Amino acid sequence: MRTRTLIKDLAAREDGPVTLGGWVEKLRDQKRIQFIILRDETGSAQVTYPRPTIDDAPDENDALAAKVSTLTNGSFVWITGRLVHDERVKLGGLEIQLDDVEIVTLADPETPIADDTSIDKRMDWRFLDLRRPEMNLVFRIQTTIEATWRKYWVENGFVELHTPKLMASASESNAELFKLEYFEGNAYLAQSPQFYKQMAMMSGLGRIFEIGPVFRADPSFTSRHATEFVSVDIEVSWIDSHEDIMAIQEQLMHAAISAVKEQHGEEILKHFGIEVQVPSIPFPRVTLHDAIDIIKERGHTVERGGDLDPEGERQIAAWAEETHGHEFVFVTDYPATVRPFYHMRHADNPALTNSYDLIWRGTEITTGAQREHRLDVLTEQVKQKGLEPEGLQTYLDFFKYGAPTHGGFGMGLLRVLMLLLHQPNIREVGFLFRGPNRLEP
């Protein structure tokens, strides 16, 4: 196997022979010199080949020049040549003087997308769209975020779980279930790992996390919804209230954004024009009741019964920025009417729950809560929601043999990336989007 040098490592190498593998980003086939801009997964470099001359005219029979002339944008090639550091070269202050090019595959010269192509068309050709350097950066940022969270979890005694994605019954709402044939019966794609996270608490695991896919049969066409997405979940035992979960979440966000700024801040500024803002701890907190009043004072009336609409989320975020100088705000104490049956009610006001949403720059990224751990209370709350306890018997059985106080959250990974990079749509920052009218590629 030949030794391949990555473009990011060229600056640290001394002048001399080098072998690169990548794709042709651009070809300038001039009369006396040929330029190839070669890109790999780490960056771009300039490759040059001065055409040999005969009597001060280009040698029309030069085989290497002829081969270079056949290259098309997007072709994958091996390049062998000599590295030369030259500060006059705008692209990285270095170039590769070409000795040979091996064509792995030639690309069709007619590319189906361009920089100004619509997002829907770019989704059709996502593998080409992902060749953009800013998209390479997105996935390195995502890797940094997940690695930072995992580091925090491991250092704080969390255990990683991989919960089933095929379920016999609903974990949230029957209206959002994907139903499929399963041997002689039916199964459902998991909307959430919620029930299994709670089962882990009854198992005595204490603290768990999962990063995995979830599925929602939601016919929404908004900038932040998908039918399949990556959910970031935790569940923690021995908490006193949802405040304990909020404290963990703000620590996770602070750590992740700090790591992103340190490792990728300059590149984010270059490619996205964004200076990453590391949030201070603690994040501002406001009850839903007070948030609705604040939003009304700002000129918008929340019409939903006990929840914030998108404009309400934008307004309370603007308030947090103006009042606290903060991009994040926790909205707490949602009414039981809009929360699942397993959210714990307030001890002094059963109309409210020990729950929260985390809003970042006007968009909700997380729902979290303390869970109800008392079987008799939980069963009654199931009935109050118009559900039949018999249909949730497997779940309720978790609580028969002792249950600690516990709580957790679920967070959308792509929403985090979208908001961090100030992008208009989660489709811009995901690998492959799945929505009501998108199942390919």
TrEMBL record:
SUPFAM superfamilies, A to Z: Class II aaRS and biotin synthetases (SSF55681), Nucleic acid-binding proteins (SSF50249)
Listed name of the protein: Unannotated protein
Any one of the GO CC terms: cytosol
HAMAP family: Asp_tRNA_synth_type2 (MF_02075)
GO aspect biological process, one term: aspartyl-tRNA aminoacylation
Keyword Chloroplast: no
Keywords of this entry: Aminoacyl-tRNA synthetase, ATP-binding, Cytoplasm, Ligase, Nucleotide-binding, Protein biosynthesis
One MF annotation (Gene Ontology) recorded for this entry: ATP binding
InterPro entries noted in UniProt: Aa-tRNA-synt_II, aa-tRNA-synth_II, aa-tRNA-synth_II/BPL/LPL, Asp-tRNA_synthase_2, Asp/Asn-tRNA-synth_IIb, NA-bd_OB-fold, NA-bd_OB_tRNA
Subcellular location: Cytoplasm
Protein's UniProt keywords contain Mitochondrion: no
Aminoacyl-transfer RNA synthetases class-II family profile domain location: 139-441
Family: Belongs to the class-II aminoacyl-tRNA synthetase family. Type 2 subfamily.
Principal cellular location given in the protein's record: cytoplasm
